[in-house]
Design a protein that fits this description.
Blueprint (H helix, E strand, L loop, with lengths): L2 E6 L5 H18 L6 H18 L3 E7 L2 E12 L11 E10 L8 H14 L5 E4 L6 H9 L15
Parallel strand pairs: 4-5
Antiparallel strand pairs: 1-2, 2-3, 3-4
Length: about 160
């Protein structure tokens, strides 16, 4: 199977990225039942990622397996200001979304997308990469640790009714 990774503009590939985002959201809902229904946030979230791509050096990569869209990854640059508590003050890559379709899993596609995205930003001077994942997403946590990421903060939530 031939895997090709291409950079796309979300606004120009809206339907494809929207489908990937919808699948990602369904998966996140399985992990956390307070995840919003995609139809309720679709327009706002897609507008957000398009804006991040246009205004914050966002990059959306799509992996094609023998010409078929198999997965995607999206990240953008966040500039640190003097309100941060970390020592690092440079540009930071925030990887906000990524997903590989079930039929294409266990083929190294997500790893290839991640390596490609990191390479683009590291070669452009980024020294810090951040991302979130659900605490019960064990496979993603294992992947991130294998790739050199480490847990630095835990987010605690309390839902008050």
């Amino acid at each position: 199977m031939q895997i090709d990774i291409r950079q796309v503009r979300i606004a120009e590939e809206y339907e494809m990225i929207d489908r990937f985002m919808h699948e990602l959201h369904k998966h996140e809902y399985i992990l956390f039942d307070k995840t919003a229904v995609w139809a309720d946030i679709q327009q706002g979230y897609m507008r957000h990622v398009i804006s991040m791509q246009e205004e914050f050096e966002g990059v959306c990569l799509v992996a094609y397996a023998d010409g078929v869209p198999a997965g995607f990854m999206f990240g953008y640059v966040e500039d640190q200001d003097d309100s941060r508590t970390e020592v690092y003050e440079g540009r930071e890559l925030y990887v906000s979304d990524g997903y590989v379709g079930e039929a294409f899993r266990r083929m190294g596609i997500y790893r290839k997308l991640n390596e490609h995205l990191e390479h683009l930003f590291i070669s452009d001077g980024v020294k810090r990469i951040t991302r979130f994942t659900m605490v019960n997403n064990v496979r993603m946590r294992q992947f991130l640790e294998e790739e050199g990421y480490m847990v630095t903060r835990l987010l605690y939530e309390k839902w008050v009714e």
